# Entry
Amino acid sequence: MPDSYDVIVIGAGPAGENAADYARQHGLNVAIVESDLVGGECSYWGCMPSKALLRPTEALAAVSRVPAAAPAVTGEVDVDAVLRSRDAFTSSWEDDGQAQWLDAVEVDLLRGHGRLAGEHLVEVTGAHGEVTRYEATRGVVVAVGSRAAVPPIPGLAEVATWDNRDVTAVKDIPERLLVLGGGVIGVEMAQAVRRLGASEVTIIEALDGLLANEEPFVSDELVAALEADGITVALGARAEQVERQGTDGPVTVTLAGGHELVGDELLVAVGRLAPTDDLGLDTVGVEAGRGGFIEVDDHLRVPGHDWLYVVGDTNGRALLTHQGKYQARLVGDALAGVVVDPAWADHAAVPRVVFTDPQVAAVGLTARTAAEAGHDVLTTSFDVGHTAGGALHGTGTSGTAQLVIDRQQRTIIGATFVGPGVGELLHAATIAVVSEVTIDRLWHAVPSFPTMSEVWLRLLEQVRAQEL
# Structure
């Protein structure tokens, strides 16, 4: 390997890979450093395995909602087959294919722990402790992702628990699962484990709603769906003590007020931290912020360091794979001298999908955050089950679709959908938000019949009615 590159990327997850690939496409000499599996958290312990666990039971539930097809559902999901499928989607936690892809796009892979060692310098510590120093003449991109946070609950750090890596790589479905946290990982994996055979699943959430950053109706509708699956949802429940009998016995969570919950495993899913404590930030005069996240400007650069970029979870702007890849594409171009727009979508147009059944899909601002930002807000909502396409999805199909509109600009600044498969409705909303198209022009975007996309027409009809 050479001792100097145009660009060095620390971290070979989706964001790091994209930054390296885009820089290389511009003819730059690029290396990427990885101490774990090439492909990162999303490929092996996040997006892909979690959806592989969720999809089979979602498909079974979808068939069961169609009266004429429901009699064909005569058995349960094949759990062993689900786990084998999950293993296939993770390449059985081997990264040969990802490493070969890096080789194909002519990006050098440096195996080991990467850290900054001064301006434009990166040190890589190999498996046997050997340290090699490299220079990055154009710039360094930090893309080390995030890890599960552990809250300071008495006893929690002393007992064996699960995080996202444990639950997505599960080999045996536990009889009883406790889930600490009602965010995306918590609700998705609670439903997956319950539908794959757990007899008891309980979500413990300290706040008064699930997915607290979304519209309030999202929590109400998701709680109803989870409870219909036999999942217990404890809202406003603050854990005060965690204990486990022996090394692998039952685990007990004591809530404020003294109520005890017992499970065979405890999934801790209360948030994420950036693993930047051994990144050498001190060698370049940079301090990480709360949670280890590194502040960047809208060009994804660390202020005062025009050669140092941070993309993906590590900058804390939007902890989503697709947003990290979006940031990385901008940085890969910028490193090659291409003039790019700043990453404003992180502020105003972040698309997000929760793959529960029903799905939750949203983009942009909620009604609350829009009002707080000073917008003159108009909201309109409609039940997706009351469209012809929704009715064809089967009995019990329902879920709220809502648009958040800026009255003055007459543009959509946020959208939320709850219902089966609504993640596929989201990109139309994302395009509307990003393009700032007016609702008057959207009136001429005709949805096909009979599809659930007809909900767009119903929402716009309600806007017209409110304005008359």
User: Anything to note?
Assistant: The longest helix spans residues 47-64. The chain has 15 helices and 22 strands.
